[in-house]
């Protein structure tokens, strides 16, 4: 009974913290500072959830089964690392933060997969989140090729490419957000079977998608 009450208190505290995270993603200015702040707070909550899962011995992954998730999340991390490196050379520094936040979440996914293999719904949610977040990588590759070949990219052409990237994200982001919310609802089951680290990480990603969506609206 004490364990159940203790877990209920922990659940309530995590719930309030995640609710505050979503509120910040909804009402904070849609800028780089807000994105960094939400990302930092989300990662702190994820670390706290990892500690909680470790203390309650819910980290029960089978090493021979987690390698697929680790490889996939690692591949996303490499793509986002490439985007981070390329984005540092173009005039729109917002994408540097965009890829930096996505890279941190991919690394958290690898660590989370080692600790506890994600279920199918969580795995699909990760594919959707990172797949859509990697959209600006195409922009960075185009600009890098133009730079390496000596071609100039004027501001109007750059704005057109950014606009197309943003419009694609604007169309896909609501679907990704809805999918992540569905994953969160599916994870919210009996306390004894719950893995709070994945719940917090998916909630964190949903808040990031919401904030990026608001930013794309402001840029449209």
Provide a descriptive summary of the structure in words:
This protein has one domain. The chain is mainly α and 220 residues long. 82% of the residues lie in helices and 0% in strands. The longest helix has 33 residues, at 155-187.
Tags for this model:
220 residues, mainly alpha, 82% helix, 0% strand
Poorly predicted runs are: 1-7
The general outline is: globular
Helix content: over 70%
The total domain count is 1
Radius of gyration: 18 Å
Major sheet description: none
Number of strands: 0
- Portion of residues in beta strands equals under 5%
SS element count, helices: 8
SSE class? mainly alpha
Mean pLDDT, to the nearest integer, reads: 80
Strand and helix layout:
Blueprint (H helix, E strand, L loop, with lengths): L1 H26 L4 H24 L7 H25 L6 H22 L4 H14 L2 H13 L6 H33 L8 H24 L1
Helix pairs in contact: 1-2, 1-8, 2-4, 2-8, 3-4, 3-6, 4-8, 5-7, 5-8, 6-7, 7-8
């Amino acid at each position: 009974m004490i364990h159940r009450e203790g877990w209920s208190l922990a659940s309530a505290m995590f719930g309030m913290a995640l609710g505050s995270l979503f509120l910040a993603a909804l009402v904070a200015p849609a800028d780089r500072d807000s994105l960094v702040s939400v990302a930092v707070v989300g990662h702190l909550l994820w670390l706290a959830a990892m500690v909680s899962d470790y203390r309650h011995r819910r980290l029960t992954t089978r090493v021979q089964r987690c390698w697929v998730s680790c490889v996939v999340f690692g591949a996303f991390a490499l793509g986002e690392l490439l985007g981070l490196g390329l984005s540092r050379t173009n005039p729109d520094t917002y994408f540097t933060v965009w890829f930096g936040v996505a890279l941190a979440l991919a690394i958290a996914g690898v660590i989370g997969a080692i600790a506890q293999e994600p279920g199918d719904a969580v795995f699909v949610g990760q594919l959707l989140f990172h797949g859509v977040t990697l959209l600006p990588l195409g922009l960075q590759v185009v600009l890098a090729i133009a730079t390496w070949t000596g071609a100039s990219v004027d501001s109007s052409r750059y704005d057109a490419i950014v606009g197309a990237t943003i419009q694609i994200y604007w169309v896909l982001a609501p679907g990704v957000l809805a999918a992540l919310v569905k994953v969160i609802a599916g994870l919210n089951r009996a306390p004894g079977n719950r893995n709070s680290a994945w719940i917090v990480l998916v909630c964190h990603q949903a808040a990031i998608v919401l904030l990026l969506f608001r930013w794309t609206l402001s840029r449209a």
